[in-house]
Amino acid sequence: MKPSCWWLVFVYVTCLHPSLILAIKRIIVNYSSQNLSSVPPGLKPSTEDLDLSLNHIQMLSGKDFSTTPRLHFLNLSWNILENIDMDAFNSTSALEILDLSHNRLQNLSDQPYLLKVGNLQFLDLSSNMFSVMALGKEFSTLKHLQWLGLSAISIGNEDFTYIANLTLKTLFINTDKLQKYEERSLTGVHAEKAVIALSNKDLDIAIADDVFASFKEVEFTKVDSEMKVLQQIRQRGTVRTVSLEISKVKTTWEVLTGCVNTILSSAIQQLSFSELTLTKMVNGRPVTSSRVLESFSIRRATVTEFIFNQTELYDFFISMPARKVILTQTPIIFMTCPQTVSKIEVLDFSDCALTENIFSVGPDTECSTLTNLKKLVLRGNNLKHLGPLTSRINLMSSLQYVDLSQNTLTYSEEQGKCVWPRKVARVDLSSNVFDQSIFKCLPDSIRILNLRNNRVTTVPADVGVLKDLNILDLMDNRLLDLPTCQAFPNLQKLLVRTNSIHSPLPGTLETCPHLKDLDLSRNPFICTCALREFAALINNRVTQTPGVTLGHWPEGYRCSYPESRSNTTLKDFYLPEISCNGWILAVTILIPTITLVVAVSLLCHRLDVPWYLKMMWKWTRAKHHAITSQKKAEDMEGLRFHAFVSYSQKNADWVKAQFLPKLEGDCGLRICHHERDFIPGKTIVQNILRCIEQSRRCVFVLSSHFVQSEWCHYELYFANHQRVMRGMDSILLILLEPLPLYLIPSKYYQLKAMMSRRTYLEWPQEGAKQKLFWANLRAALQANLPIPSEREEE
């Protein structure tokens, strides 16, 4: 039999229930839920992970796994297994994870197949049909076992004798069907942690007594609403447990607060609740103990009532005598300030619904009792304004680490001056919406700054000097150039991966004398002469400078433009000196050219070639003039402008300062400009159509802003339809800045097609080349248009 499909999935396996123990990534062969009655034959020898759960397999024979010597993971849970041949695992000596839970196995004393799995680390036999928990002698051979899951109807004192020599990491016992339990049955088991799924019966008390006396770490699941297993912990003689976790419990506020106070009076150091549901939010008891816990945490808590005293709830948690308080994945919208000086050193309110009013006491009063707090985590809340938030934490004098990531935080000077605690050394502001203004709201003592995944385009030159800053993470932002280290003189690690850096200036790195780690990968480098010097510099740093690390070099550094060098690594990028040095290029071209011109001139003079050329030129001009004159009468009718100019409003300065003065003032051309020539009262679309129809050509000023403008898209669309009537010469493209095709949105497919087929004018930055640019543009637009009548002008 073959599987209906091979699921190739990466699985991250941890030490959690039900079949998870090691941190590995593997490919699973999945036969789950295939209605199988036996193990499918013909399993490949390369099979390492096999899932046969949720089938109807009744027995395992000695040959079922004979072809899988590399089998590491086997899940047989939720079948109807009654019998396993003692030779079933003869060929699977590498097996480490075995899940046999939720089957019909009946005798824990007779599991001889375990003698063949000496490397087993995870074994789950819970939820079978075992009458007694008497483990057989074969269990003593599992020297590497770390996780063991069991369940039975009866548990006796001698049941765990054969695993007394083993030291487990986790013992899981499901007491759902337990009817009899002898006291002290668990005291002989050696495990770091016990996980007990309770049955809500009187037996839970006796089990809890033994668990507390035997294990350092304890987790109770399916706890009853009265939490009886915790009520008498003070009366217990010996309590070895230091870490207690309660999961999947629904209880009242009165019971919860009472149990917490009870546990505070015990020897337990770490207390946590998960999947907690609170009802009847009345009669809560305040914290009365002064003993300090190592940690107190609540994850995924909900309250079923809508109207209750929220201040009482917040006061209870913030007044907890613990060094670490964690309240996560819980929809709280506020947290009060402790009434007295708190001993809390770590506060984690991740994934809640808090705002920047957290800890607020009054309009002019801030929280002053969290003076021992060293770490504050507010990740994944509803924080929006950083300025007021710094005021909330200003008096936390011991604060060193602040995590405000995954919010929608912004900062502007209108929010006021930022006032940070003086010891803050690490700030995580990743995954917010900050721009470059954030550099005006940073603590002077900062050493590590994470600004990943924001909207920073540049590091301002006027930012204050942060002399202690060692690590700056600006990955996944919008940087256009490599930031200098003038404001960060001791910077050692700079991460600017995945930004918009095209051609970084080589002098930037010279401002960073202490820089040891730099990651510039995955930026859209434009491999032209401007990048040549920088590429050589970083190449030399990697190969010649000891102690300097360039992240993801060389595969992460590739050219994005021009097309001829697309995907070329900067390590292999090379331009000869002659391509970038104008003087060398001129000398190289002029000497052969002059020699050739002299030779051709002598030859032409001897053969009287100039006379023939002169005659042909006159004939050609005459023919061309005739054709042009023939078209003027009909083609120029109704045209008022030599050109209609379309551009993004962000390029308006160039159009008004360069384009219009040169063409209208110096060349005497008539240009249709929307700010001047659009008729008031008509819609924008009507004005665009009128201008295009009355213009001989349409000039489009292309830039990265152009392809983001909706109106520019409309103008290009209408002009493209109009050129069908006038021919290809009706559209003229001017490239104001480099615009790789991959930056053009898919809706501009017509523009992509035109740029790939047509020649366009590029605006040169050098003044000497601009004269030739204007000459070519004037020649392309020059035409004798009819003088418009007054009626047409109206």
From TrEMBL:
Main location: membrane
UniProt record, GO biological process: inflammatory response; innate immune response; toll-like receptor signaling pathway
Molecular-function GO term, any one: transmembrane signaling receptor activity
Entry GO terms, CC: plasma membrane
InterPro entries (UniProt xref): Cys-rich_flank_reg_C, Leu-rich_rpt, Leu-rich_rpt_typical-subtyp, LRR_dom_sf, TIR_dom, Toll-like_receptor, Toll_tir_struct_dom_sf
Keywords: Disulfide bond, Glycoprotein, Immunity, Inflammatory response, Innate immunity, Leucine-rich repeat, Membrane, NAD, Receptor, Repeat, Signal, Transmembrane, Transmembrane helix
Parts of the chain that traverse the membrane: 583-604
Protein name: Toll-like receptor 1
Originating species: Megalobrama amblycephala
